[in-house]
Design a protein that fits this description.
single chain, 180 residues, alpha+beta, 4 helices, 4 strands, 36% helix, 7% strand, globular
Length: 180
């Protein structure tokens, strides 16, 4: 019980620290002359979420999605490949566990070259403009596979230090929760 209490206190302190850092930077300017980037950056800073429709072509999404699904067929349990790609089958041994059935694939770009062909420069310009003076670290590119699983965790904020911005590129349309 004491270990859980200490971990909870650490988590709360970390969130307070993150809130303090965000407060300090909320008055930073937006370093961009591009009005489109600036508008997205303002929205990102205000809500923590932006949507950019059709960021990647349908053809590229289909090709990457098919390659990901092929990999999940080949590696059907939690596995780490020699190239660093790691397949994490969430709650693999606990059918009632959080996110059971979700597959997190870390460093997917090391196994699917087409992922590296996605031009992320616009996303980075938005993030850089939104965070202004904060340091940006090189991202890790992951894939998440959800095959119509609706018992996932609810919306949440990851507790990370330093600040972590995530960009999700949906490889198929998800009109509502019934699609997983």
């Amino acid at each position: 019980p004491m270990k859980k209490i200490i971990e909870s206190i650490k988590g709360i302190c970390s969130l307070w620290l993150q809130d303090f850092i965000n407060f300090i930077h909320c008055f930073d300017g937006y370093k961009t002359d591009d009005p489109k980037v600036k508008n997205y950056a303002k929205e990102l800073r205000k809500t923590g979420l932006i949507t950019i429709e059709n960021y990647v072509s349908d053809e590229a999404c289909d090709k990457i999605r098919n390659n990901i699904l092929e990999l999940t067929e080949r590696y059907s349990t939690t596995t780490k490949l020699d190239n660093g790609t790691y397949f994490d089958y969430r709650s693999e041994k606990n059918k009632t566990g959080a996110d059971h059935g979700m597959i997190d694939i870390y460093n997917i770009d090391r196994s699917i070259d087409d992922v590296n062909n996605i031009d992320t420069s616009f996303l980075f310009r938005i993030i850089k403009s939104a965070v202004d003076k904060q340091k940006i670290y090189h991202p890790r590119i992951n894939a998440y596979v959800n095959r119509n699983i609706t018992g996932t965790r609810t919306y949440h904020i990851d507790n990370t230090q330093p600040v972590c911005y995530k960009a999700f590129i949906y490889l198929k349309d998800v009109p509502d929760d019934s699609y997983g």
